[in-house]
Amino acid sequence: MRTRGLPEKIRASLGSAVVLGLTKAALDARPTTIYLLTLLSGKCSANCGFCPQARKSRGRTDMLSRVTWPAFPTERVISGIQHAVKKGAIERVCIQALNYPTVFEDVANFVKEILSRVNVPISISCQPINREEMRKLAEMGVERICVPLDAATEELFNKVKGRLAGGPYVWEEQRMALREAVHIFGKGSVSTHLIVGLGETEEEALRTIQWCVDLGVYPGLFAFTPIRGTTLESRARPSISRYRTIQIAHSLITDGRARCEEMLFSKEGAIKDFGIPRECLEQAVRTGKPFLTSGCPGCNRPYYNERPSGPIYNYPRHPQPEEIAKIKKQISTLNV
Predict the structure, then answer these.
(1) Which SS3 state, helix, strand or coil, does residue 264 take?
(2) Cα–Cα distance between 313 and 282 in angstroms, integer?
(3) Long-range contacts: 129-135, Cβ < 8 Å, 24+?
(4) What does CATH list as the number for 2-334?
(5) Among 190, 331, 150, which Cα is nearest to 247's?
(6) By C-alpha distance, which of 275, 155, 158 is closest to 210?
(7) pLDDT per 10-residue tile (average), the chain, 336 residues
């Protein structure tokens, strides 16, 4: 059933649903972005190996990573967004799109309805769409678009979400979509996702991060999370120390304080030197900033990759002094 072209229901992350007053639950950290997910009766037509929404996944259809996404009437969700924006409770709305034939129509109608009622920055995270569709979203008022790469190399991309995985995605088409997005939305208004722990080396991850930054794309970091029923359910998470290393380098590169080609790597692709003075590296760690959730402005994505009990891969709020002390122990091998 559809009203004014809108699907009857849409999914919201559990934390988002609490902020919108749609359900009740205790929150250790409140999301500062409302995360929505288009709703299907079946599975996504893509087949990403890490995703419970994948076509061949045996995982739950109400999950992305380790977060549940209950479905709610669209009208209640949009009304909740209106109230949350007016109260200053949120900074952004992020609509995440599964892959199915009418997804662009659904996303466009959600955007139109939300912006007809309230002025709020909207991000769209979706599969590659064509230039005309991107331009329509920009003209409607979408502030940012995200086209996820997820994997750091073409080889890994093919294995986890491309043709070798039984998926529709092609590495160069994904990269071309990012170039098109920058052309339409502008540098600094395009994002991608990079999942650490799919088999990449640190050097491979950082070269892809540098490529994104040079293009004008912001790469948000995720830690691989094994989810029951997915193709990669048996794969281990990345070690917290390795993830911290990549977080530090990611922060230095995205802030323009270092470049990948100025860093030193071992033969195995592990980082040996960040290419900046030691005191600058120590200062970066002390701020705690590299270890925050990375993504669109206002995105804190609480506990998407971890339980509140830890270990915390991406902090949804600024780390406390005792947490920074713990982080320093996690990166003790770096001597910083």
Answers:
(1) strand
(2) 19
(3) 129/104, 129/177, 131/180, 131/183, 131/184, 133/104, 134/180, 134/181, 134/184, 134/185, 135/184
(4) 3.20.20
(5) 331
(6) 275
(7) 74 94 88 94 90 88 82 96 95 96 95 96 96 97 97 97 93 97 97 98 98 98 94 95 96 96 96 93 93 94 86 94 92 66
Distance CA 9, CA 39 (A): 7
Domain boundaries, the chain: 2-334
pTM, rounded to two decimals: 0.94
* Residue carrying structure tokens 């970091």: 221
Number of Cβ within 10 Å of residue 139's Cβ equals 9
How far apart CA 226 and CA 231 sit, in angstroms, is: 9
- Angstrom distance (rounded) from CA 207 to CA 290: 18
